[in-house]
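dude i think i finally got it to work??
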Amino acid sequence: MDKKRLEMYADLIVNTGINPDPGQDVVITAGFDQLDFVRLVTEKCYRRGVGKVWFNWVDMPLEKLHYVHQSEERLAKFENWEVEKLRWQSEKLPARLWLDSDDPDGMDGIDPEKRAKAQMAKFPVIKPFRDAMENRHQWCIAGVPGKEWAMKVFPGLPADEAVEKLWDAILTAARANGDAIANWDAHNAAIARRSAILNDFHFTALEYKADNGTDFRVGLMPQGIFAGAQETDLSGRKFNPNIPSEEIFTSPMRGKAEGTLVATKPLSYQGSLIENFSMRFENGKVVEVHAEKNQNVLEKMVAMDEGAAYLGECALIAKDSPINQSGILFWNTLYDENASCHFAVGRGFDCCIRDFAGYSKEELTAMGLNDSMIHVDFMVGCDSLDIDGITEAGERIPIFRNGSWCF
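look at this
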């Protein structure tokens, strides 16, 4: 890949993605195969004036070996140094960057129940530290092509060609053509304008219908707002948590969802692919799921904890989004969710409640914000999707027709 384009992408990730303060530490999570790009990003961080860059190196084949050979009890155990590492992050508040290059089904074949139980056992230790960091630091997820991922997206090509082609697709999706940072300044402003239009309607519910079987109504919180792309932490620092990001999203009211959602793209969940699936909701909760592939993984996913079967996000993306127009199935939620309207089961977003900083966690929960150890997006957008917003006065406002914005 052309060095100038990689330089531009690294600049975008550091300056628009995590946007670290001078002297602030940065934690980068990446695979061993991404060393060259990690070096490039690290140099950009130091040129920005950060304090120290730390690294979490990950490897899916090694992780799979752990889940195959360790007992459930050992997988669930936290060592003291691991707890102290979480404590350090919650107190130091480094900017965090995850460079995702995972194989979409690299964890296929492991016991989903064993993995789920181990994660559920660890979550009570993780949650206080996660909550302490919420909205208090910058973070970003961005893609970097791994060989296995690239060959899944472009089967039939030699590995080197597939990686090069995936690089091009990633950079194009990230608007890293021309002046990438200027592109994102304009993109962030456009998302903010459309979010403001939606917020002015004060919708109480959204209704979805499509000819594939989606027939669904979701309630919205009175204090809820739509947001997208750029976020601001409680210190006033602006950052972009996802590169790319085409969505305008909100967190719906827990317990207010009825009907069926039919997924329109596969879901890669923790290294297993769930394909051709649907979810049926009653009183806001998933009560029935169907999947042609890995239904057991889907069932375990929505049973991870009490909040895992409720919605945490609904996101609006038109079918003419650049990622959808590319015609590429990325087999990766970071990209595929930005090609399509989607929902997420699990944790909702504090920032989707107006003036959220003035409320406690308990007050946010009382307003209807869902909480869970998971937040998993799945795509429902298609060419026939119609979405209506219902106002406080009961007026029905068309938002989407045939997969596209009405305004």
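The first helix runs from residue 3 to 18.
im so relieved honestly
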